[in-house]
Write a structure and sequence with these properties.
By secondary structure, the chain is α+β, with helices and mostly antiparallel strands. It has one domain. It is about 30% helix and about 20% strand. It contains one helix and three strands, in the order βββα. The protein has a three-stranded antiparallel β-sheet. A hairpin with a 6-residue loop joins β2 and β3. About 0% of the residues are buried. The N terminus is likely disordered.
């Protein structure tokens, strides 16, 4: 997880604040999404895709 971001265009990007650690990896037939906040770590591939789609939609909406 990065806490500092930079943009190659030279526009300064502030540091992220209050970020939660997360790690994502395959775990047999599940996707393990470990988070520093929250208890669930194993998601079905379909649940993991739903999470990814929600993140991508929010990023698109923010543009």
């Amino acid at each position: 997880m990065a806490t500092e971001q930079s943009d190659s265009s030279g526009i300064p990007v502030p540091e992220l604040e209050n970020t939660a650690f997360f790690a994502i990896e395959a775990d047999d037939d599940y996707v393990r999404i470990e988070q520093s906040l929250g208890n669930q770590v194993r998601y079905t591939p379909s649940e993991a895709r739903d999470i990814a789609d929600a993140i991508l939609r929010a990023a698109d909406d923010a543009q």
